[in-house]
Write a structure and sequence with these properties.
Keywords: Electron transport, Heme, Iron, Metal-binding, Signal, Transport. 62% of the residues lie in helices and 0% in strands. It is mainly α. Bound molecules: heme C.
Length: 104
């Protein structure tokens, strides 16, 4: 009986840990949602990116835009860039801007 109690308790503890770590580190949606056009390194050198005219994230024109400019493009779209408002959460889109800065 004592054993069963301990086992239940540790199962609950493991479950909580898994839930917490998931909340702290959401998976980066870049690979699933952006990479097909912008490429793994953000150069826009994929066939779809070239066809649609995606610029490299490290191009001067992109670097000089503010974080809120980039966030607006992700949210509302621009040219052939699809809008992601409603498909991604605000924290996810903010994290993507930070990720783009890292790629730059
Ligand atoms: C279907 C292809 C496609 C997908 C998917 C896509 N993009 Fe884009 N993106 C583009 C194109 C094309 C542009 C250039 C738009 C223009 O300037 O006319 C662009 C522009 C941008 C820009 C502005 C940079 C600039 O060129 O001024 C940002 C930031 C951006 N995309 C982020 C993202 C993020 C983050 C995702 C994933 C959530 C994503 N994109 C998914 C095609 C795509």
């Amino acid at each position: 009986m004592k054993f069963l109690y301990a086992a239940t308790l540790s199962a609950v503890a493991i479950f909580c840990m898994a839930t917490v770590s998931h909340a702290q580190a959401p998976t980066n949606p870049y690979a699933a949602k952006c990479q097909m056009c912008h490429g793994a390194t953000g150069l826009g050198d994929t066939p779809a990116g070239k066809m649609m005219g995606a610029r490299a994230f490290n191009a001067p024109d992109v670097i000089k835009q503010s974080d809120s400019d980039l966030l607006t493009v992700i949210k509302s779209g621009k040219g052939k860039m699809p809008a992601f408002a409603g498909k991604l959460t605000d924290p996810e889109m903010t994290a993507l801007v930070a990720y783009i800065r890292k790629l730059q």
